[in-house]
Write a structure and sequence with these properties.
- By secondary structure, this protein is of the alpha/beta class.
- It has a single domain, classed as TIM Barrel, CATH 3.20.20.
- The chain has 10 helices and 8 strands.
- An 8-stranded parallel β-barrel has the order 1-2-3-4-5-6-7-8, surrounded by 4 helices.
- Strand 5, helix 7 and strand 6 form a beta-alpha-beta unit.
- Helix 6 packs across helix 7 and helix 7 runs parallel beside helix 8.
- The radius of gyration is 17 Å and the shape is globular.
- Its main location: cytoplasm.
- Pathway: Carbohydrate degradation; glycolysis; D-glyceraldehyde 3-phosphate from glycerone phosphate: step 1/1; Carbohydrate biosynthesis; gluconeogenesis.
- This is Triosephosphate isomerase.
């Protein structure tokens, strides 16, 4: 198990457009619908809060189901950890069952995921709807986490083309200087034990850097079967700004190993 460095880092600069990773990586996780109320309380109290200093240095955000968002906001107060939602609707009004970006901001959320592969597949969400959600989130003061990635394994050219389209559609109408995260997460890697091949992930990152409009500078994350070693492996070929965690965020030992890797001082 890796040890977690104790020294604090300065605020994270954004530098994606120049092809260099952030000084300290960034991380987030989504619990999907895998944890109930008590399980979420236990996870926050037993796994996250004892590691709040290290997680805070990663600007860690936990994306929770709607009913559990107030719990996350309360538990994370003054810890440096933040709470995000897993979905949002484009505007407030008579849309039964949906939740507006304004309401998410009002209860204390800082981030919201848009365009996750499961929503694209199960609810037929297309690039235009994802872009509307991203704009609504940004207008409400939230940071949209724009999910991109191929549904099935594909060649490098096909993957890059698809990811560029998804990202550019969502980013181009955001306000100038808007905060945003682009999360590349191949759908086939979600819940599996296989990450994207490093060379393909590097090609995707390069494409995302080229596709980013001049008026925004998003944080670029990789997600999909992330464990200890994933970030280091990908970083050798491409300067990703950080990773999104799945199972590794819920297992204390796995999380310690990943944190030790992410916070390890850069080697020459």
């Amino acid at each position: 198990m890796r040890s977690i460095p104790a020294t604090c880092s300065p605020p994270i600069p954004t530098s994606n457009r120049h092809g260099t990773a952030m000084t300290t990586p960034v991380s987030l996780t989504s619990t999907k619908m895998n944890l109930g109320l008590r399980q979420t309380e236990n996870w926050i109290d037993d796994v996250l809060l004892p590691r709040a200093n290290a997680l805070g240095r990663l600007h860690f955000c936990a994306c929770l189901p709607y009913p559990l968002l107030p719990l996350g906001v309360r538990r994370f107060e003054k810890t440096g950890l933040t709470t995000g939602a897993q979905n949002v609707w484009c505007e407030a009004g008579a849309v039964t069952g949906e939740v507006s970006a304004g309401l998410l901001a009002e209860i204390g959320c800082t981030h919201v995921m848009v365009g996750h592969a499961e929503r694209r597949r199960l609810f037929a969400e297309d690039d235009r709807l994802v872009a509307r959600k991203a704009r609504a989130a940004s207008a409400a003061g939230l940071t949209p986490v724009i999910c991109v990635g191929e549904q099935e394994r594909a060649g490098r050219t096909e993957t890059v083309t698809q990811v560029r389209r998804q990202a550019s559609t969502a980013l181009r109408d955001l306000p100038a200087g808007a905060a945003a995260v682009v999360l590349y997460e191949p759908a086939w890697a979600i819940g599996s034990a296989q990450t994207a091949e490093p060379h393909q992930a590097a090609a995707v990152l390069s494409a995302l850097q080229q596709e980013t409009p001049d008026h925004v500078n998003p944080t670029l994350l990789y997600g999909g079967a992330v464990t200890a070693g994933t970030y280091s492996s990908l970083r050798r070929l491409a300067p990703w700004d950080g990773v999104a965690l799945g199972r590794a965020a819920q297992d204390a030992a796995m999380l310690d190993d990943v944190l030790g890797e992410l916070l390890e001082p850069a080697r020459p």
